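INFO worker-7 received task bundle
INFO bundle size: 2
INFO processing item 0
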Amino acid sequence: GSSGINAEYGRVGLFEGKPRDIVNTFTEAIKTIDPKLASGKLSQLWIEFAKFYEDNKQLKESRMIFEKAVAVPFVKVEELADVWLSYVEMELRHECYEEAQALLNKATTPPPHKPSYYDRTESVQNRVYRNLKLWSLYADLEESLGTFTSTKNVYYKILDLKIASPQIILNFSEILEEKNYFEESFKVYERGVAMFKWPLVFELWTTYLTKFVKRYGGDKLERARDLFEQALDKCPEKFTKPLFLLYAKLEEEHGLKRHAMAVYNRATELVAKEDKAEMFEIYINRATACFGVTHTRQIYEQAMDVLPDRDARSFGQRFAELETKLGEIDRARTIYIHTSQFADPRNCNEFWKLWQGFEVSHGNEDTFREMLRIKRSVRDKYSTQSSFNVPPTDAAPTTEPVADNPMAQLQKEVNFVRANSQKQESQADNPDEIDLDGGDEDEDDEDDEDDAGNDDGIVKQVIPDEVFGKLAEKVAEQEDTTIGS
């Protein structure tokens, strides 16, 4: 009849110190419990019974119980496997290694017709040969007690039964590699990557590719490339980044640098969204190392096209600073103008400060005014957008007249400076030629600031940095108050 196994354990516990009663209770329980109706793990009852004899140093009786237990028609294959495992572990505890190996050999020998693990019309005894826990213990045992050949045989049987886990593949390949059977080890990886789907296959591919490149370097470059392409073929985007990095490293170290750049370029398109910015970062760094900074222009442009606003702004700032360092002032200004569309003045202060600093150092009154005009129009764009959405908490909506104030103030200041300039010399024909640096273009920004303090007066049509610096500060202050109000 049906019976609770936990209740039987309770009864066994009552007779502690009374071996005869304990044996009777176990025997009675085993006789009366129907394996098909048992609630709980019947296998555990048999294992505890055998353990009782083992604890009393009666190995012969313990073995007898296990021999009966492995013939019980348990409901699940796992229960029978647990009995076999406990039987083997008991032999190992008493250093009966040959007996343990013989037991595992017996447990894993398939019946002639080799039924499926999940075929419930077959007895659990006919199906237990496909239990991976038994095979894993068998493989470990052969590795420590058997020969290299006997170990290999066990692993190959696991592969042939198609019950291997990715860990089994990694272990087997490692054993082969340790004995310098490199090609055989790679064949095992090949079988492994064919056996599993993503994401299970991820660790197999990364290990296989790393070992292959380490072993052959550039000697089997075409084969290595084929492997990388195969790995990437069905790879979900969130797993692609490490594979692309390994692939590009292969090309940089053993192939062609321009091939490596092509791999990085593909990576920026195919990696997961959250990895894209980092991938562009790596691409820019490697392109700089391999070909110099001028080779990065196209990459920066690409990054700004495809990345979300925040990242696009960050790459834009760096790109503009790079062009400034290269003395490409017009290019830098174009980048600032392009990047401004990603920079809401209400919460992207850093960007606008950078651009303003750039114009003070390298621009003239027209370019400075143009920057302020763009800033105003960008702010208006974001204000309009946020009137449809929730406006940022730190920004009150601004009205047009207030937005105009800094501009009007700037115009007054500029007119004042012009009037003074005209007393010295007539106004230049082309206002774009006004040089705000007050000196050699190649001088540092810091030099310009130092020079501003030693101004001897207004020379020709130049507006001294000192005057413009204060002017710029005033404008900035008014902009800030406008934005914050």
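INFO item 0 finished
INFO processing item 1
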Amino acid sequence: MVHTTSAAPRGAACGSDRYVSGGAGNNMDAKVNGCPSGQSWEPCCAACGSALQASRALQSGWYCEKDFFSTGIWLKGCQRKKTCGI
């Protein structure tokens, strides 16, 4: 079960203070928020994706991608690259 956080009314929690905006799902393209200060975005996003997969909100095949301007990292569902279940 994915819980909505009070910090992100339309977001899905994915760990200690981490959440994705807009909710979770296999077609998601959502910014990961709440990464701990000093932690690089990649492990934060990977932990978020793993948590959502463990809660069955995502299938395997999700991936993380930084934006062009390096303002954050986005968690993308497996349907973006047709990699669900791989």
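INFO item 1 finished
INFO post-check item 1: The first helix runs from residue 41 to 54.
INFO post-check item 1: Residues 1-9 have pLDDT under 50 and may be disordered.
INFO worker-7 idle
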